[in-house]
Amino acid sequence: MAILVSGGTGFIGSHTCVELLNKGEEVIIFDNLSNSKREVVGKIERITGKKAKFYKADMLDKDALEKIFGENDIEAVVHFAGYKAVGESVHVPLKYFENNIVGTIYLCETMKKHNCKKMVFSSSATVYGMKNKSPLSEEMPLSVTNPYGRTKLMIEDMLRDICTADSEWGVMLLRYFNPIGAHKSGLIGEDPNGIPTNLLPNIVNAVTKKNGPLKVFGSDYPTRDGSCVRDYIHVEDLAAGHVCALKELRRRNGIEAVNLGTGNGYSVFEIIDAFEKVNGVKVPYEIVGRRDGDVAECYANPEKAKRIFKWNATRGISEMCADLWNYVLTNRK
Fold it and tell me: Is pLDDT above 90 for 293?
């Protein structure tokens, strides 16, 4: 039986496909390529030496979903597909509600029709809102400050209701913190279409002089150096967490929310310093005003993942920065 990976050519999805294939799983990828490239499938195969079936499809296309499930014996879905830019979601919320929520409804309907009732869902630490104090743990009250986060929280609630209505369903809600890095091979990494919104791709663009100096949003936060503190996790550690979640789902039903983070917070200036030291480059930056919706600190309590998955992050910030720069150099055109 196969594992279907929605959004499987994206940053986290592609690394998870590698991890699944290396563990001997049969993998089927579907992606509409709106924020990724078809060539990633070939790179996944080069890294693993194994084939992954690929469908260029959109989860809003019911006929495409029916074709995928009709042609394959699918055991479980690892669900990454969705729009993810916080800023954009504020300006075009209906686009996010339609794609992320309606698309997930269509996916779940098709899963149910084909008696596939196991899902690992790509959620986010954004569901903790701005009022909880770090380290953030799974039992804290949830709230959101933007439409992107609202889609994640609404999907979490929807999946809880599905599991309540049908005890045969099993769902893991994986709440990510800040994935960075790239595969050791340098073949796959974070390569968004258009202008990136995350810190590390913007550091890369500053170093390569693609978009001018890095903008540091605020230096007057109540943190150790005035810049925002975040929990950065290597994307390969994150991918391994999905395989652990899938293994856990194979032995039980019901629903669990689990943080995937390191439990350590690094500031923007500390990330800049680490990137410069490990890679021998200079990161030009300028300090600008605070960005709406940013909290001073956001980092995980990762103990639940250690307890129920036997998973923990093993890679440090220097390795994350080095692997990202290796990816950039490997793919420089």
Answer: no
Tokens of 59: 């989860």
Q: How far is CA 241 from CA 185, 218, 248, in A?
A: 20, 32, 11
Edge to edge, the sheet with strand 297-298 lists 266-267, 229-230, 297-298
Cis peptide, bond prior to residue 93, ω within 30 of zero: no
Q: Assess whether 327 carries a catalytic annotation.
A: no
Q: Which two tokens stand for residue 57?
A: 């499809």
Would you say residue 144 lies in a domain? yes
* Ranges assigned E (strand) in 45-127: 53-56, 74-79, 118-124
Which structural domain range is residue 152 located in?
Answer: 2-180+232-261
Give the active site residue among 55, 148, 221, 266: 148
What's the token pair of residue 103?
């698309």
Q: Is residue 20 within 8 Å of 3, Cβ to Cβ?
A: yes
Q: Which of 112, 135, 117 is nearest to 125 (CA)?
A: 135
Contacts of 53 (CB under 8 A, 6+ apart): 2, 27, 28, 29, 72
pLDDT in tens, 188-246: 998 766 667 789 999 999 999 888 899 999 999 999 999 999 999 999 999 999 999 99
- Exposure string of 210-226, with b = 16+ CB inside 10 Å and e = fewer, is eeeebebbbbebebeeb
Residue 332 CB coordination number (10 Å): 7
Residue 55 lies in a domain: yes
Say how many C-beta atoms besides its own lie within 10 A of residue 81's C-beta. Answer: 28
- Please indicate, yes or no, if residue 131 is contained in any of the structural domains: yes
Tokens of 99: 């794609």
What is the distance between the alpha carbons of residues 146 and 84, in angstroms, rounded to a whole number?
Answer: 11
Q: Assess if residue 199 is contained within a domain.
A: no
CATH number at 117 reads 3.40.50.720
Q: Per the structure, how many domains does the chain have?
A: 1
